[in-house]
UniProtKB/TrEMBL annotation, chain A:
PROSITE patterns with a match to the protein in the record: CYTC
Taxonomic lineage of the native organism: Bacteria, Pseudomonadati, Campylobacterota, Epsilonproteobacteria, Campylobacterales
Protein's recorded name: Cytochrome C
Keyword Heme part of the UniProt annotation: yes
Top-level taxon in the UniProt lineage: Bacteria
Protein backbone atom coordinates (compact mmCIF):
# COMPACT_ATOMS: atom_id res chain seq x y z
CA UNK A 1 0.00 0.00 0.00
CA UNK A 2 2.74 2.46 1.00
CA UNK A 3 4.64 3.87 -1.88
CA UNK A 4 8.33 4.59 -1.97
CA UNK A 5 9.05 8.16 -0.83
CA UNK A 6 12.21 9.93 0.26
CA UNK A 7 11.76 12.12 3.31
CA UNK A 8 15.45 13.09 3.22
CA UNK A 9 15.03 14.71 -0.16
CA UNK A 10 11.97 16.59 1.04
CA UNK A 11 12.55 20.29 1.74
CA UNK A 12 9.72 20.57 4.25
CA UNK A 13 11.29 18.01 6.59
CA UNK A 14 14.51 20.05 6.75
CA UNK A 15 12.63 23.33 7.12
CA UNK A 16 10.56 22.05 10.01
CA UNK A 17 13.60 20.44 11.66
CA UNK A 18 15.61 23.65 11.35
CA UNK A 19 12.72 25.69 12.74
CA UNK A 20 12.35 23.30 15.66
CA UNK A 21 16.06 23.25 16.55
CA UNK A 22 16.40 27.04 16.18
CA UNK A 23 13.29 27.63 18.25
CA UNK A 24 14.33 25.31 21.08
CA UNK A 25 17.88 26.73 21.11
CA UNK A 26 16.55 30.31 21.21
CA UNK A 27 14.22 29.50 24.11
CA UNK A 28 17.07 27.79 25.98
CA UNK A 29 19.37 30.78 25.47
CA UNK A 30 16.73 33.22 26.74
CA UNK A 31 16.11 31.01 29.77
CA UNK A 32 19.86 30.67 30.36
CA UNK A 33 20.27 34.45 30.26
CA UNK A 34 17.70 35.01 33.00
CA UNK A 35 19.04 32.05 34.99
CA UNK A 36 22.55 33.55 34.85
CA UNK A 37 21.42 37.06 35.76
CA UNK A 38 20.17 35.83 39.11
CA UNK A 39 23.36 33.94 39.79
CA UNK A 40 25.81 36.75 39.00
CA UNK A 41 23.92 39.29 41.13
CA UNK A 42 26.27 40.69 43.76
CA UNK A 43 25.45 39.66 47.32
CA UNK A 44 24.82 42.01 50.23
CA UNK A 45 26.68 42.63 53.49
CA UNK A 46 23.80 41.08 55.46
CA UNK A 47 24.03 37.87 53.41
CA UNK A 48 27.79 37.77 53.84
CA UNK A 49 27.51 38.23 57.62
CA UNK A 50 24.93 35.43 57.78
CA UNK A 51 27.27 33.15 55.87
CA UNK A 52 25.02 32.85 52.82
CA UNK A 53 27.12 31.71 49.89
CA UNK A 54 26.90 33.77 46.72
CA UNK A 55 28.91 33.39 43.54
CA UNK A 56 29.72 37.10 43.73
CA UNK A 57 29.81 38.15 47.38
CA UNK A 58 29.29 41.65 48.77
CA UNK A 59 32.18 44.12 48.37
CA UNK A 60 32.54 44.00 52.17
CA UNK A 61 34.27 40.67 51.60
CA UNK A 62 37.47 42.76 51.72
CA UNK A 63 36.96 42.80 55.54
CA UNK A 64 37.42 39.03 55.59
CA UNK A 65 40.15 36.50 55.12
CA UNK A 66 39.80 34.63 51.84
CA UNK A 67 41.30 31.21 51.16
CA UNK A 68 41.08 28.87 48.22
CA UNK A 69 40.35 25.33 49.32
CA UNK A 70 39.77 22.04 47.57
CA UNK A 71 36.10 21.17 47.61
CA UNK A 72 35.90 17.39 47.33
CA UNK A 73 32.21 17.45 46.51
CA UNK A 74 32.59 19.85 43.60
CA UNK A 75 35.94 18.46 42.49
CA UNK A 76 37.80 21.77 42.34
CA UNK A 77 39.05 24.58 44.54
CA UNK A 78 36.53 27.15 45.78
CA UNK A 79 36.98 30.47 47.59
CA UNK A 80 36.25 30.21 51.30
CA UNK A 81 35.39 33.42 53.14
CA UNK A 82 36.73 33.24 56.65
CA UNK A 83 36.93 35.41 59.75
CA UNK A 84 37.62 39.15 59.80
CA UNK A 85 40.99 40.27 58.53
CA UNK A 86 42.47 43.75 58.44
CA UNK A 87 42.72 45.33 54.99
CA UNK A 88 45.02 48.37 55.01
CA UNK A 89 44.56 48.48 58.80
CA UNK A 90 40.75 48.26 58.83
CA UNK A 91 38.18 45.50 58.91
CA UNK A 92 35.05 47.65 59.15
CA UNK A 93 34.57 48.95 55.61
CA UNK A 94 30.92 49.72 55.01
CA UNK A 95 29.20 48.48 51.89
CA UNK A 96 29.46 51.98 50.33
CA UNK A 97 33.14 52.44 51.20
CA UNK A 98 34.06 48.99 49.94
CA UNK A 99 32.06 49.49 46.75
CA UNK A 100 33.77 52.87 46.13
CA UNK A 101 37.16 51.23 46.59
CA UNK A 102 36.25 48.38 44.25
CA UNK A 103 34.97 50.78 41.63
CA UNK A 104 38.15 52.82 41.84
CA UNK A 105 40.17 49.65 41.34
CA UNK A 106 38.03 48.49 38.44
CA UNK A 107 38.28 51.88 36.72
CA UNK A 108 42.04 51.94 37.32
CA UNK A 109 42.37 48.44 35.83
CA UNK A 110 40.48 49.65 32.77
CA UNK A 111 42.41 52.92 32.52
CA UNK A 112 45.75 51.14 32.72
CA UNK A 113 44.47 48.43 30.37
CA UNK A 114 45.57 45.53 32.58
CA UNK A 115 43.71 43.11 30.28
CA UNK A 116 46.14 43.96 27.50
CA UNK A 117 48.54 41.50 29.20
CA UNK A 118 46.63 39.91 32.10
CA UNK A 119 43.49 37.79 32.30
CA UNK A 120 40.58 38.87 34.51
CA UNK A 121 37.80 36.31 34.98
CA UNK A 122 38.65 34.70 31.68
CA UNK A 123 38.85 37.95 29.69
CA UNK A 124 42.09 39.37 28.43
CA UNK A 125 45.50 38.18 27.42
CA UNK A 126 47.77 35.40 28.64
CA UNK A 127 51.03 37.30 28.25
CA UNK A 128 51.18 38.08 31.96
CA UNK A 129 49.87 36.02 34.91
CA UNK A 130 46.14 35.38 35.34
CA UNK A 131 44.84 37.89 37.89
CA UNK A 132 41.54 36.16 38.71
CA UNK A 133 42.94 34.62 41.91
CA UNK A 134 46.07 36.80 42.14
CA UNK A 135 45.23 37.88 45.70
CA UNK A 136 45.56 34.24 46.80
CA UNK A 137 48.96 33.73 45.15
CA UNK A 138 51.31 32.45 47.89
CA UNK A 139 54.23 34.23 46.22
CA UNK A 140 53.18 37.56 47.74
CA UNK A 141 54.76 36.32 50.98
CA UNK A 142 58.21 36.41 49.39
CA UNK A 143 57.42 39.94 48.17
CA UNK A 144 56.51 40.95 51.72
CA UNK A 145 59.89 39.72 52.94
CA UNK A 146 61.79 41.34 50.09
CA UNK A 147 60.00 44.66 50.42
CA UNK A 148 59.91 44.65 54.21
CA UNK A 149 56.12 45.03 54.25
CA UNK A 150 53.95 43.81 57.11
CA UNK A 151 50.94 42.85 55.04
CA UNK A 152 50.13 41.35 51.69
CA UNK A 153 48.01 44.31 50.59
CA UNK A 154 50.88 46.72 51.23
CA UNK A 155 53.26 44.52 49.25
CA UNK A 156 50.85 44.31 46.29
CA UNK A 157 50.22 48.09 46.39
CA UNK A 158 53.97 48.70 46.46
CA UNK A 159 54.49 46.33 43.53
CA UNK A 160 51.74 48.02 41.49
CA UNK A 161 53.27 51.46 42.03
CA UNK A 162 56.86 50.39 41.31
CA UNK A 163 56.72 47.19 39.27
CA UNK A 164 60.07 47.72 37.54
CA UNK A 165 61.85 48.04 40.91
CA UNK A 166 60.40 44.66 41.93
CA UNK A 167 60.79 42.38 38.93
CA UNK A 168 58.62 39.27 39.15
CA UNK A 169 59.88 37.39 36.12
CA UNK A 170 61.54 37.92 32.78
CA UNK A 171 58.40 39.56 31.38
CA UNK A 172 58.69 42.64 33.54
CA UNK A 173 55.57 44.65 34.19
CA UNK A 174 55.92 48.24 32.94
CA UNK A 175 55.63 51.21 35.24
CA UNK A 176 52.10 52.46 34.60
CA UNK A 177 52.10 55.45 36.94
CA UNK A 178 49.64 53.92 39.38
CA UNK A 179 48.99 56.27 42.32
CA UNK A 180 48.85 55.13 45.95
CA UNK A 181 45.07 55.54 46.03
CA UNK A 182 44.62 53.66 42.75
CA UNK A 183 46.88 50.89 44.04
CA UNK A 184 44.68 50.54 47.13
CA UNK A 185 41.60 50.30 44.92
CA UNK A 186 43.29 47.78 42.66
CA UNK A 187 44.22 45.57 45.60
CA UNK A 188 40.61 45.73 46.85
CA UNK A 189 39.43 44.86 43.34
CA UNK A 190 41.82 41.89 43.20
CA UNK A 191 40.80 40.72 46.68
CA UNK A 192 37.10 40.87 45.83
CA UNK A 193 37.66 39.14 42.49
CA UNK A 194 39.49 36.28 44.23
CA UNK A 195 36.37 35.69 46.37
CA UNK A 196 34.18 35.11 43.31
CA UNK A 197 33.18 31.49 42.81
CA UNK A 198 34.39 30.81 39.27
CA UNK A 199 33.71 27.04 39.28
CA UNK A 200 37.42 26.35 39.75
CA UNK A 201 38.77 28.78 37.14
CA UNK A 202 41.70 29.17 36.62
CA UNK A 203 42.11 25.40 36.73
CA UNK A 204 44.72 24.04 39.16
CA UNK A 205 45.62 27.51 40.36
CA UNK A 206 48.51 27.24 42.78
CA UNK A 207 49.67 23.90 41.42
CA UNK A 208 50.92 24.69 37.94
CA UNK A 209 54.06 26.78 38.08
CA UNK A 210 53.39 28.45 34.73
CA UNK A 211 49.82 29.28 35.69
CA UNK A 212 51.00 31.72 38.32
CA UNK A 213 54.28 33.05 37.08
CA UNK A 214 53.53 33.30 33.39
CA UNK A 215 56.82 31.56 32.69
CA UNK B 1 25.15 7.87 35.46
CA UNK B 2 23.67 10.70 37.53
CA UNK B 3 25.99 12.39 39.98
CA UNK B 4 24.95 14.28 43.08
CA UNK B 5 24.09 17.94 42.54
CA UNK B 6 27.24 19.87 43.39
CA UNK B 7 26.75 23.42 42.10
CA UNK B 8 26.23 26.17 44.68
CA UNK B 9 23.06 27.51 43.08
CA UNK B 10 20.31 24.95 42.43
CA UNK B 11 19.12 25.52 38.89
CA UNK B 12 17.98 23.64 35.85
CA UNK B 13 21.20 24.44 33.99
CA UNK B 14 23.30 23.44 36.98
CA UNK B 15 21.60 20.06 36.92
CA UNK B 16 22.03 19.83 33.16
CA UNK B 17 25.74 20.56 33.43
CA UNK B 18 26.60 17.77 35.85
CA UNK B 19 28.11 15.59 33.16
CA UNK B 20 27.93 14.56 29.53
CA UNK B 21 25.15 12.03 30.19
CA UNK B 22 22.55 14.52 31.48
CA UNK B 23 23.31 16.87 28.61
CA UNK B 24 23.07 14.07 26.04
CA UNK B 25 19.78 12.82 27.44
CA UNK B 26 18.35 16.32 27.49
CA UNK B 27 19.44 17.28 23.98
CA UNK B 28 18.18 13.99 22.52
CA UNK B 29 14.92 14.33 24.40
CA UNK B 30 14.33 17.95 23.45
CA UNK B 31 15.74 18.06 19.91
CA UNK B 32 16.39 14.65 18.35
CA UNK B 33 13.25 12.87 19.57
CA UNK B 34 10.84 15.53 18.24
CA UNK B 35 12.68 15.30 14.90
CA UNK B 36 11.59 11.65 14.63
CA UNK B 37 8.00 12.85 14.89
CA UNK B 38 8.61 15.47 12.23
CA UNK B 39 10.15 12.75 10.04
CA UNK B 40 7.16 10.45 10.51
CA UNK B 41 4.67 13.23 9.86
CA UNK B 42 6.43 14.25 6.66
CA UNK B 43 6.67 10.63 5.52
CA UNK B 44 2.95 10.16 6.05
CA UNK B 45 2.23 13.38 4.18
CA UNK B 46 4.45 12.39 1.22
CA UNK B 47 2.88 8.94 1.06
CA UNK B 48 -0.66 10.33 1.06
CA UNK B 49 0.18 12.88 -1.64
CA UNK B 50 -0.88 12.02 -5.17
Amino acid sequence: MSKKVSVWADGRFWQRSAAWVTGVAAMLLIWLTFDTMGQIQMGTKAELDQGITKRVPSPTVINHKITYEMNDKRGHETPVIGEKEKFFGRDDYSEEEAMALLNLGKLASQTKNCMNCHTLLGNGAYYAPDLTKAWLDPNWESYMLRMGKETKEEAIAEFLQHPSDNPSNERMMPNLGVTAEEAKGLVAFLKHMSSIDTNGFPRNFGKIEGGIHGR
Amino acid sequence: MFSEFTDIVPSFFGWLNQGPMTLTLFLHGAIVLPMFFIYKQEKKRLESEK
